[in-house]
Amino acid sequence: MNIVFAERLKNLRKEKGLSQAELATALNLTQRKISYLETGQFEPDLTILWEISNYFGVSCDYLIGKTDY
Questions:
Q1: Are 52 and 6 in contact (CB under 8 A)?
Q2: d(Cα 16, Cα 18) in Å, to the nearest integer?
Q3: What percent of the chain has pLDDT over 90?
Q4: Domain 3-64 adopts which CATH fold?
């Protein structure tokens, strides 16, 4: 599992002051799915990756650890 993605998602969520439930609502996901994404138990498909990237205004490359910006 991609630990970099899990850590970056959790950090972005916390920086925005959102709970897992609030982020789940914004992305039309369940809170459980956000929890699984943040712990590395589930890897996002391309649609979820793209939606998270757009929501936080970061690149998909950043989310998966290819770049640090």
A1: no
A2: 6
A3: 96
A4: 434 Repressor (Amino-terminal Domain) (1.10.260)
